[in-house]
Amino acid sequence: MKPRKIFIYQVLPRLLGNTQASNIQNGTIEENGCGKFNDITGKFINQLKKNGYSHIWLIGVLAHASTTDYTKYGIPGEYPEIIKGNAGSPYAVRDVYDVDPDLAMNVNDRMREFEALVERIHNAGMQVIIDFVPNHLARNYKSINRPEGVKEFGSNDDTSVAFSPGNNFYYLPGKELEIQFPVKKMADVTYKESPAKVTGNDCFTNKPTPYDWYETVKLNYGVDMQNGNEKHFSEIPDTWKKMKDVLIFWSKKNIDGFRVDMAEMVPLEFWQWVIPQVKKIFPHIIFVAEIYNPDAYRLFLANDNFDYLYDKVGLYDVLRDVACGYRPSSDITFTLNNVGDIQHKMLNFIENHDEQRVASDYFLKNGKSGEAAMIVTACLNINPVMVYFGQELGERGMDEEGFSGKNGRTTIFDYWSVDTIRRWNNHGKWNDALLTKEEKKLQRFYAKLLTLCNREQALSQGLFYDLMPANYDNYEFDSAKQFAFLRGTSNELVLVVVNFDNKDAEVVVTIPDHAFDFFGISQNGNFNAFPLLSDDKPKITFSKNNPIRVTVLATSGELYKISSF
Q: Other C-beta atoms within 10 Å of 538: how many?
């Protein structure tokens, strides 16, 4: 049977292929270098495939505002004061129909280089996801690559009114933009905007602060946000049509999915209208919503609109707290119950570009300590799993790059190179020759875990059975530090046991009669349990009247394939 789980490797090409080690704080592209589409070689992609990944999510593909001057290529100049960092945010898109020139070896051939990358990924048997940013555009948006006949965003707007269903933007008539920068920086401001547009984070003032998304402007989807969110959908708003065209444009580039940025900031009705139209033409396309409101989850999944949703405010937040010792592991059960009927639709992760690195000083301080959380993340259900590039090497994210300070995150705003990635790249060789022993070991752990999740039918397609309720009264199982569950089909069963404690633990796991009935497996006789992650552990024999006893390493876990005899 074909595996149903997908594993996404999330990567920022600007950083991935950059081998330049200068790393000057607030450096330019000339000083610090920049990775290119061409650096994502067939060798690298094949290695990802071998390590269990099925999809690559490429961040920062769309042309976004940066301080780098590309005017000699016909690309409009930018205003540094409305750009975060020198490289700029990948989510301040300055042309929805273009790819970022930073990523091209030959700027004039940038689209062809992107298309060649998509082809390389497909040739390796993997699929491509890119961002779709529907809520906002770069403050100084200008499209030079839009198809013939496509009108510019805002070109027909009535700027004398705050809101019109036909406008692409929201306006603050009679007011000029005044970003509240420090006095010293204000002296360098040359960008003018009058009337001021509303800022991307729904900031309805002409004086956004540095803490707002001041580099972006909010798109108008026909909702009068200042008048009780009154909806004007009787005629399809112009922004809907323009964004549908954008989705079709990129779908024709043979991409396989969209990660939709801040999907819940756009009216649900738009998604209900546009996704079926895109899927009618491109039925293979998947839509993954970045969403943080659990009350909206089922609405966004209804009628098979979005395929998957971020599980950030649920599983991620709880796993982080459990791994850090702030909450008992039994809380994982309660979190899963909240999405029980849709858990297979939730995208699981313990790192992404918005969150702090597991190995940072602000989280667990080293990658090894995140193994237990990663096992749970990867093995829970048939839902997709995401790994952020460098996570599998224990990248710490503790650089102070420039706009992005020392905060435990890898910058998305600065020209930089990442030490662990740079050594793994090894000047295009993509081998582990320059990695430390610990980094190699962690990388092998991730590869083995993901490969098992694809290989073992119980993990790729099986049902989930939580063993925590059956072990709450088990004095040989610490429900504050350990977590256990089964995944299985009618002919295959895998036991997953993890230990969030910082010391090894010997635990006894009770598997109730109901669990065997649930999977349709006979509970008569004895069972063998074969460890899958470890190469040096012996098999374990247990029976109904003699529960399984296992040793689980600190901050890690084990998978046991169960068979009767």
A: 9
The b/e string for 174-210 (b: 16+ C-beta within 10 A; e otherwise) is eeebebebeeeeeeeeeeebebbbbbbbebeebbbee
Residue 522's pLDDT is: 78
Query: In terms of Cα–Cα distance, which of 103, 110, 79 is closest to 92?
Result: 79
Instruction: Using the CB atoms, write b or e for 245-271: b if 16+ within 10 Å.
Output: bbbeebbeeebbbbbbbbbbbbbeebb
Q: 394 phi and psi, to 5 degrees?
A: 75, 30
Look at strands 308-310 and 548-552 and give their pairing.
unpaired
Q: Are 291 and 347 in contact (CB under 8 A)?
A: no
Residue 93 near residue 60 (C-beta atoms within 8 A): no
pLDDT in tens, 551-563: 999 999 999 999 8
pLDDT of residue 565: 55
**The token pair that represents 4 in the structure block:** 């149903």
Dihedral angle, C-alpha 98, 287, 134, 83, nearest 10 °: -60
Distance CA 95, CA 197 (A): 18
Residue stretches of the chain with pLDDT short of 70: 1-4, 183, 565
Asked if 369 and 322 count as a contact pair (C-beta separation under 8 A), the reply is no
Predicted pLDDT at 1: 41
Q: Read off the pLDDT of residues 209-251 as tens digits, 9 standing for 90 and up.
A: 999 999 999 999 999 999 999 999 999 999 999 999 999 999 9
Question: What three-state secondary structure class fits 194?
Answer: coil
Q: How far is CA 435 from the centre of its chain?
A: 25
Give me the sign of the Cα torsion angle 392, 50, 261, 191.
Answer: positive
Of 114, 163, 155, 302, nearest to 242 by C-alpha is 155
Q: How many CA atoms lie within 13 A of 96 on its CB side?
A: 25
Contacts of 337 (CB under 8 A, 6+ apart): none
Give the tokens for residue 110.
Answer: 């940038």
For position 68, what pLDDT does the model report? 98
**440-489 tens-digit pLDDT:** 999 999 999 999 999 999 999 999 999 999 999 999 999 999 999 999 99
Distance CA 284, CA 128 (A): 11
Count of C-beta atoms within a 10 Å radius of residue 284: 11
In sequence order, what DSSP letters do the residues of 507-565 get, joined into one string?
EEE---HHHHHHHT----SEEEEEESS-SSPPPEEEETTB-EEEEE-TTEEEEEEEEE-
CA distance 2 to 554: 34
